[in-house]
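Course assignment 3, question 2. Fill in each field.
Student: A.L.
Task: Predict the tertiary structure for the chain below.
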Amino acid sequence: MKKKLAVMLVLVLILSMMSGLSLQADDNGENGSGPEILTYQLVVEGFDWGPAVTRLIVELGDAVDADDIDVADFSVFFTREPGFRPAMDDEFDLVQQDANVVNAFVSDANGVPANEPSTFITLELEVHPGRGINPFTFVLSPMGNNWADPFETTITWGEAFTPTRTARIAPLTDLFDLDGVFDYGDITLQYGSFVPAQAAASNRPLIIWLHGGGEGSRNLTAAPDVAILGNRVTQLVAPEIQGLMGGAHVLLPQATTMWFAGSADNNGESHYEAALLALIDYYLENTPGIDLNRIYIGGCSNGGYMTMRMLFARPDMFAAAWPVCLGYREEWLTDDKIASIVDVPIWMIHDINDPVAGTPHEDSQRILDMLVTAGALNVHLTTTDGLYSDEFYDDDGEPWAFNLHWSWIPALNNAVSEEIDGVNVSLFQWMAAQSLAGEVVEPDPVDDPIDEPIDEPIDEPVQIVTTLRLVMDSPTYTINDIEATTIDSFIPFIDPDSYAAMVSLRMVVEAFGATVAWEGDAGRVTVVRGDIEVVLYIDQELPDGMGMPILLNERIFVPARYISVAFGFEAAWDGDARAVYITA
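Answer field:
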């Protein structure tokens, strides 16, 4: 009897094991599990507060289809160097940082959604200034950012996997050449650079950006991509600004420490001053396709200070400057220095309550007042009073408030405008009009500033035509034939119920210079462009069967046809390419 019982138990055990093996072999996604996770690509993008991990493109041991994927079955955490450390040489303990997986889908090896079974899936992570994953570590001494090391990823899908990372992708950052190195005596400056496609046909302007105190190379241990992502310099190569500038070169020099170095003991002169001027000269001599009459220089904080040093040293080189939250002591200024730059167009940006002791708003105001007194005619100061996100919100539903030192946020987003000569223009519209040759192009107005009739006729400003091309189910888009890639949560698609082409409202707003206000409790969206205001409600049907606005993965999508009609844009559909064209 005991022998028979033992045999039966063995048979039961074998059958259960076989059943388990069969279930695992046939089950991709059922019961919350999937095939083996082999490798992954880490996707990092720049945002107003710095870099964020937006996606993981995951390679699997077996193919899966859409029915196998349920976002609730995935979890992700990172084992990493802490996000803040007091000193570089101090020992540290690794920390675990949990990510919020907000979307999961079958994709190809590039993270593009796939309609057929694939051995790749893409996991989208929550992006938020307070809850997202910032892959940088900030060290206080020597001060600066760098990629967290180690930064190991664990993905759980039924069981936990720690796959090998095969690539780190930064879509706009990867457009830069990051290998520039320039030696000047005992100083080595790294630099990143971007060359627009239009430079092959004719000379194009050059934008020079000087980073803040946290984005230096830390004695050549941090590459220029740290400076690009630390202050969202990626916006300089994104379609809006490139479109306004007609295609522009971008040069991003990187100090080994901070641009301020040596200034306190040398009447404001930086240790890097001669080296930076030599680098700029070298780059101009060795880079074809640059219009020497249209060189623009700007920077934030430390970089704002260094922008002023460059102007004082070579006022004849720069067509315009845009120092942001600069710090420049009163004792470093003289009447002769101010007189040397009185004819240089300058636009400063600074928050009234900047909390950093070395960069008070008073420094920008003082320079403005001295220049105006000296007779400057094209100098401006935009003073912000609070820096708020138009996309992210805190737990109370209020717009996320950024550090008041970070006035580079509106500057790099081209969200700064002033009325100049009766026309309301943005920072980069104004910049594009400045030239040492005096051949300025009237900027396209943001709205009509003329409220009363005038006796004298005025010339109509040149209108800049903008065409936005969006391909359904693709992250690739173009503005005025300049190609770029967006994150997956902005990818347009065809609504299966209304057959409307659904596009990201934020992409439309940024492309055509509109503003948007979101009232989450009411589900109300207000979009304003010039004197046209459009109010939309999430999930409320639009007239003429045009579909409805929806909220998808915390992003607002609207039917392309409706938003075009509402603002008087032209819309066209290319059925073969599955692409919508919106032209204003």
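Instructor remarks: The longest strand covers residues 50-64. Residues 169 and 291 are 31 Å apart (CA to CA).
Grade: pending
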